[in-house]
Structure formats: C-alpha cells, structure tokens
Amino acid sequence: MPEISLSCACGKIIGFTKNVNAQSGNRIVCCCIDCQKFAIFLQQENQVLDQYNGTDIFQMPISYVKITEGNEHIACVKFSQKGLHRWYAKCCNTPIGNTLGHKAPFIGVIHNFMNNQATRDSDLGASLGIAHWQSAKISVPEEHKMSLFKISMRVLGKLIMWKIRGLEQPSVFFNPDGSTVSKPEVLKNKKREG
C-alpha cells in the first residue's frame, strides 16, 4: 500500500501516512457548513474548497498519520465544545484534518496536507461522493450526492473495525492520557462567521 508524504504549505510540518488505499479508508467531499467555516477561519478558501464549497477528505485510522518534524506547529480549533477537533498548521494555516476524540481511531485528512495531488485518484480511489450537499454553493449533480445515512454507515463500519484493531494509538494529536497535544481554541459565534 502506498506511503504518502504529508506537509504543510511552508514545510515546517512534515510526515507521512502508511497503509492507505481506496479499501483502507473513505474518500469523500464534505460540504458541511463547519468544513466551509474551517477553510474561512484559516483564510484558505481558494486552496481548500472546490466549486461546490466542498473539502476533499480521506478518512483513515488516526494511527496511520505520522509526523516526523514540526509537532510544535500543530494547532487545534473547535466550533463547539462537542464539535470535531479541527487540526491545522499554525505556521501557515494549512488544514491538516478532523478528529472525533482521543478514543476514536479516526482522522479525516484534508487534501492540502497530502502531497499526492497528481496521484490522488490512483492512491486513494475516486471520491465516494459529496456529503452534506445541501450546503453546497451550487447545485450538486444527483450522481455525486452521497446520503448522510450511507456515509454514516460506511464510517461506522470502519470505526468499529479500526477500534477492534486498536488503531486509535499511537496518535500525533492526542497524548496517551487522552489530552490533546495542542489546547483546542473553541470559537465563539462571531469568530466563526469569518
């Protein structure tokens, strides 16, 4: 399975993934409001969002992400106390990925952090579809729409399998005691509006 190099735009955070392919994870485009707000918060809309205002994400076990340099530049933001942890490079505002919590063996790595633009389809397979298409900027063709039920069931199946295999550790985002490596900033509504 391919090993994909990872880095932020300025190169201060460097790493790699292991054991990833179309069967080992889920590649989706997410148009949810919070994914859009994350790109706006980082002032990276033009680099992150596609024509639908969607973000290309690859969901995989969190333990498959390895950071070899620049851990001190990893930062985290949340849009609510119970919301996803949204990780980014504070050195250059490159989005890294989204996680649930320290017990969940899951990260949705954002395309900007993966150095495989030219080989993305062959490395990870084509996108399974567009989730949260109701929040897209323009109308999404029927054949690209992915139901919330379908993606939820697919993610749940992977999460159970990954949890059984103990793939929540080691994690570069959560310490063994469950605390985050960077204290999440919980954004107030005003700040979220961009």
Describe the protein in words.
The chain is of the alpha+beta class. It has a single domain, classed as Metal Binding Protein, Guanine Nucleotide Exchange Factor, Chain A. The protein is 20% helix and 24% strand. Strands 10-3-4-9-8-7-6-11 form an 8-stranded mixed sheet. A 3-stranded antiparallel sheet has the order 1-2-5, with no helix packed on it. It is globular, with a radius of gyration of 16 Å.
Residue fraction in strands: 15-25%
CATH topology: Metal Binding Protein, Guanine Nucleotide Exchange Factor, Chain A
User: Largest sheet, if any?
Assistant: 8 strands, mixed
Helix percent reads 10-25%
Q: What CATH first level would be assigned?
A: Mainly Beta
Q: Rg from C-alpha positions? A: 16 Å
Mean of the pLDDT scores? 93
Low-confidence stretches: 190-194
Instruction: Going across the biggest sheet, name each strand in turn.
Output: 10-3-4-9-8-7-6-11
- Return the domain count: 1
